[in-house]
Amino acid sequence: MTTTLFSPYTIKGVTLKNRIVMSPMCMYSCHNEDGKVENWHKIHYAARAVGQVGLIVVEATAVTAQGRISSRDLGIWSDEHLTGLKELVSLMKEHGAKTAIQLAHAGRKAMIDGEIIAPSPIAFDEKMRVPREMTKEDIENTIQAFQQGARRAKEAGFDIIEIHAAHGYLINEFLSPLTNKRQDEYGGTAENRYRFLSEVIDAVREVWDGPLFVRISASDYHPEGLTVEDYIEYAKRMKEQGVDLIDVSSGAVVPAKIDVYPGYQVRFAEQIRQSVGVATGAVGLITSGLQAEEILRNERADLVFIGRELLRNPYWPRTAAKELGVELEAPVQYKRGW
Ligand SMILES: Cc1cc2nc3c(=O)[nH]c(=O)nc-3n(C[C@H](O)[C@H](O)[C@H](O)COP(=O)(O)O)c2cc1C
């Protein structure tokens, strides 16, 4: 049987052997709190490459130390991070996976010691701290940090870069009117709220001509927040700026109840893909081969991002292949048991 899930996919000259993407997932495993790759990362990511995942997106990796979600996040704010990242990339590639890294800044959701920054001085909830409102200089410095992160990602050998603009972290805080109350050119209108992401994309594009993904939260799940219609407009701009794929997640901008069910975010990926004509990734409770195949075959998304199912089962591609009746080549060492 031929399936779309197990057919190759080429994006801007990078060919993935199948459409299975490991969704970025923080491991909070930098025990020395220096953002450097440790044994855990090497074992964890290489195992999914052995498991035949087509593209592995390395977890949210902080472009500044201040922008970490926790002190144990991976980091890319210094050239000192390069040695570990290079090794990580080569381990994943050695086992046939293509590699991406998610460049991130946590904004007001940073849970680190010291000052935290965001577009406006509003805390996420009563348990979180009030961030300092970013000055123009902070904005410029942070855009530079994303650019430097992209330069290092290139040097480390990653095939793809993903900008984290979802889940209520810094870029998402600029986009949403719930978190951005600025009076300057970075706040107010939709265009102004998009300015920060726009400048980050342009800065990254100056140093990176490979495939560029942006992860978004397509709904704030709040009556005054952004909806998928707003993101269709933003996605048009991203496409114009040379973004190759929108990785469509949702929520976490403000505390809100989300109705979660199998494939609960797929309709957003589908709407954006259809309305904008841009490639999308679908994510969120996609757990079976049949479900993934349905999404791809009905052209609801171009890639499927698998999160927790790949934590439970590093060999999920094999499970999905069996379900779909596909012969998946085994790593040679495992042939007798495959
Ligand atoms: C342990 C864990 C860590 C996560 N870290 C990130 C992250 O670093 N960046 C991100 O964009 N999403 C992150 N997510 C969200 C996942 O990438 C994914 O979007 C979400 O889990 C829904 O997909 P799933 O139902 O297949 O798990 C994380 C999720 C989990 C479970």
TrEMBL record:
Cofactor(s) needed by this chain: FMN
InterPro entries referenced in this protein's UniProt entry, alphabetically: Aldolase_TIM, NADPH_DH_bac, OxRdtase_FMN_N, YqjM-like
Domain NADH:flavin oxidoreductase/NADH oxidase N-terminal: 5-324
Residues bound to substrate: Y28, H164, A165, A166, H167
Gene Ontology MF annotations: FMN binding; NADP binding; NADPH dehydrogenase activity
A Pfam family the protein falls into: Oxidored_FMN
Alphabetical list of SUPFAM superfamilies matching this protein: FMN-linked oxidoreductases
Chain residues that bind FMN: S23, P24, M25, C26, A60, Q102, R215, G307, R308
Biological-process GO terms, alphabetical: response to toxic substance
Keywords in alphabetical order: Detoxification, Flavoprotein, FMN, NADP, Oxidoreductase
Catalytic activity: A + NADPH + H(+) = AH2 + NADP(+)
EC numbers for this chain: 1.6.99.1
Family: Belongs to the NADH:flavin oxidoreductase/NADH oxidase family. NamA subfamily.
PANTHER family xref list: NADPH DEHYDROGENASE C23G7.10C-RELATED
Purpose of the protein: Catalyzes the reduction of the double bond of an array of alpha,beta-unsaturated aldehydes and ketones. It also reduces the nitro group of nitroester and nitroaromatic compounds. It could have a role in detoxification processes.
Subunit composition and interactions: Homotetramer.
Protein name: NADPH dehydrogenase
Organism of this sequence: [Anoxybacillus] calidus
